[in-house]
Amino acid sequence: MQTECSVAFIPDNLSVHVPVGTPLLRAATLAGLELTSACGGKGTCGRCVLRIVKGTADPGDEASLPAKYRGDGYVLACKARVQGDITVEVPGDSRLIEHQVLVDSSLLAEELVGLGDAYPFAPICRSVDLSLDEPTLVANASDLTRLQAELRRRAGLEDLRTNLAALRQLGGTLRACGWKVSAHVAEHHPGQAELIAVSPGHGERKYGLAVDIGTTTVVVDLVDLATGLTVDKRGTYNKQARYGDDVIARIIHAAEDATGLKDLTEAARETINELIDRLLGKHGLRQDDLLAATCAGNTTMTHLFLGVDPRHIRVEPYIPTATCFPVVRAGELGLRLHPGAPVVPLPAVASYVGGDVVAGVLATGLARSDSLLLFIDIGTNGEIVLGNKEFMVACSCSAGPCFEGGGISNGMRAMKGAIQRLHIDPATYAVEYDTIAGARPIGLCGSGLVDALAELRRAGIIDRAGKFVGERKSPSLRRTDEDWEFVVAPGSATECGRDLCITESDVKNLIRAKAAVYAGISTLLRMVGMDLEAVERIYIAGGFGSYLNVKDAVGIGLLPDVDPARYRFIGNSSVKGAKLCLLSKEAKAEAEEIARRMTYLELSLGNTFMDEFVQALFLPHTNLKLFPSAAVQEAIQ
Ligand code: FES
User: Fold this and answer.
1) Top mutation candidate among 33, 45, 94 for ligand 1, by most atoms within 8 Å of CB
2) The whole model's pTM is what?
């Protein structure tokens, strides 16, 4: 009886051998294919569809297989188990493909607090070129004492410690290069310095990494530690996505699966290492050239990255194991930097306000500002910080994964083929759209969904409560057995060959998500007794921060209706804050101070959040006086 079988994936021409009974999702992972698996392989999201073209598999529970895929060999990869040699086709929209990484080009970098006067340039790791006197029978101090004395004299480093690995290489390196060396010293704790390594000769370039560990995307900046310049950057999806799309699914996997925590920790590290390898390869660098890293992530991501159990974050009273994290050696974490390089996780504020928000606040200069600023990071949770140099208050509202494409029938992350902008002609209902990288459309990402909601309302296809206005006559508007839906792109134009639609339940989900963000903003303002007029500037960060159409975001009531000039889109502020901490010990100390100073407001307790939320469940809001620019449009409807 056959115990092993071969699974071939087309059109990739990848194949693996696996034991009979292996789920196809596992076989795909072993073959190096990443499939969309929003529910983490539980068989509930219906996203991991494959088509069997040769051979057979036990399809298992197919309850979540979307109706359009029933028949014709389609199965759910997480449920179907191989029974013999088999060939399967991977449809385009089942693939987890590389993200569009937010880059700085569209960001107002000069408006963020730069290193200039704000923070002195003093990286947490620096290289000091030294020429030591050779020892003699008379001048017979040890190699280390000699090095320490010279570092004290040349660089003012008083309390230099060392680690065993650096010590082991010291004697040989000094003698091999005629006592001319570069000493690489980490200074991540005030008043303490540690020798990480010595390298022969002078002037060798060394680098650091600023890392944003997002739930969806991981971004790594390669930074020259001598100049502070970003040499290059890379980003990709977080490989943890194979265990679920959002932090809750991942916490559940970590808590309930025997190898869950290990799986997630390894997936995060694997993702970062893959990006490091690409950067090293492109720039001809070695692992030992990377001497430090700072990492910003939400509190769950930081726990998982460090291998710390995050389970208590999810259950009342929502307590993380830690909000301040130890500096860890790269070697201990299995990251491909110099094994002794310090890896510094940025501190968090609370379970749902993490180091990524602290990094964003640092990058905007909010904590040093005389005037009142608002920082909004829109992802799976909407994290909001209001404050200035006097006070900072933060909250996290559960917006759900809509703006990252989750929970929406044709939603997707911001990657190639995602519709990121669209317009509906109010007379003909013809749709014009832009996709990321100009590819044939696969689905709609967050900015496309915001546009879609605004345009559906503007064209009168939905009413203020988000209900489809059935009497509108258009071939694009149709009633299915389950729902009304509007065709954004016909199957003839799409990558997957089927119509891309927005349904009435999608609209409802989006309205709930935007209402949560707006209610969070209103609640925070109410709590400190201020109104929007007092806010000088509003910073928008997050996955769609660089692409969001502010008029449409205001039009649907996601963002407050204020002068558009007060908005600043800052994209990935998490990696910017991490970079500041890498390049300035003072900025790193300030990040720690921000995490300590910030007051966290729990929205489920004793405040007006639920009232604000219910009032915001209309387009743009129950109270049109709050949205004067949208009210003009509503009057025309
Ligand atoms: Fe298979 Fe969600 S249904 S991963």
Assistant:
1) 45
2) 0.83
